[in-house]
Design a protein that fits this description.
single chain; Arc Repressor Mutant, subunit A; three-stranded antiparallel sheet; 9 strands; DNA-binding
DNA sequence: AATCCCAGCAACCGCTGTCGT
DNA sequence: GACGACAGCGGTTGCTGGGAT
């Protein structure tokens, strides 16, 4: 009989799994997982695991609204910010009564609601500025937008991609030896850079890695598979969690093709963990047991109930 | 009139940088 | 120094409306 690790909910985001192993007391941090919900972990986070603990991050599964903003939502956000000012964006949705995430609120405010924004077509002067600055700076849209009062980086970027890029390309094709713009600012810049040509002055981490800018470990991180909880569970024959450190030291020893873990109930039901309600439930049921079985399944057992059977499989899901 | 195609744009997503603990 | 939270950025996606067929 495998040991029964006890799960102690430490906060609303994590579950600590304490494993009673014959060797030592190990801890593992788990996300709250609901059936059908994918759980992911970045290799970097895997490497950050140290000693006896590591962490699996849950892709936020809050019931956020997506898509276009309604006038009512706009009004709520505008009213809130005008009243309280710009504060922590992650707190804005709850306080403003919006079912959006903070990031979405921030974007909506910056790109649409904030005072002083210009709407409508770009003037010829603005077009010229964008073309010149794009030639100089590359796709640094935020910097370009700073030179265009009332325009946002998103707006500049969209305008470039949908209109100006074609215009510049066309001008270049018709005059391959000349400047694509009429600006004298570009005379020492050579041909206008196109999106197909990576900005030479902007070195991405990936390109740094390609040129040896990062250690082999970090280089490898860019395209590595991710550690699977199932792998860890099975690292000890599926019946123990006692040596997670060994898995951590070789996090990509065995993964599926997707590099992800899924929690899935065989019957496809959900357990109500999605959305904010899960917090209350978890806090109300702080103690639980994890029963690990030989077939790759494990059960999360809360007092008086079997919550769900999770299948952490290597195969398709 | 119906359907298809495409451009424009709003919004999302993932990564990176910064700051506080 | 390690870590998490957060903001910012740029690439990408996908919806929508209008024009073409």
């Amino acid at each position: 009989m495998p040991p029964h690790p006890s799960i102690v909910c430490t906060n609303h985001k994590q579950i600590v799994v304490r494993v009673r192993s014959p060797f030592k007391y190990q801890c593992m941090f788990l996300s709250i997982i609901s059936p059908g919900q994918r759980v992911f972990e970045t290799p970097l986070q895997a490497l950050r695991g140290k000693g006896t603990g590591w962490r699996i991050c849950e892709k936020p599964k809050m019931n956020y609204k997506k898509g276009l903003w309604s006038p009512d939502e706009d009004q709520r956000l505008r009213d809130y910010i005008l009243k309280h000012g710009l504060r922590c964006w992650s707190a804005v949705p709850a306080e403003a009564g919006l079912r959006r995430n903070g990031k979405s609120c921030r974007l909506r405010w910056i790109n649409y609601l904030r005072p002083g924004l210009k709407r409508g077509n770009f003037s010829p002067e603005e077009e010229e500025t964008v073309i010149n600055l794009q030639a100089k700076l590359g796709n640094r849209w935020s910097q370009i937008a700073m030179r265009l009062p009332g325009r946002t980086d998103n707006e500049v970027k969209n305008y470039w991609n949908s209109y100006l890029k074609k215009r510049v390309t066309k001008a270049q094709n018709s005059d391959p030896h000349g400047s694509a713009t009429s600006s004298s600012d570009c005379t020492n810049q050579g041909p206008v850079k196109h999106e197909e040509e990576p900005n030479s002055q902007m070195i991405s981490p990936a390109s740094q890695a390609d040129t040896g800018g990062f250690s082999p470990e970090l280089t490898a991180l860019n395209g590595l598979p991710k550690v699977l909880l199932g792998d860890c569970l099975r690292a000890n024959g599926g019946d123990s969690l006692h040596d997670l450190g060994e898995v951590m030291s070789n996090p990509w020893h065995s993964t599926n093709s997707q590099g992800e873990v899924c929690g899935q109930a065989p019957d496809g039901t959900t357990n109500g963990y999605g959305g904010a309600c899960m917090y209350g439930e978890m806090q109300a049921q702080p103690e639980a047991l994890l029963q690990i079985q030989d077939n790759g399944y494990f059960d999360i057992l809360f007092p008086g109930s079997v919550y769900d059977r999770m299948d952490f499989c290597d195969g398709e899901f």
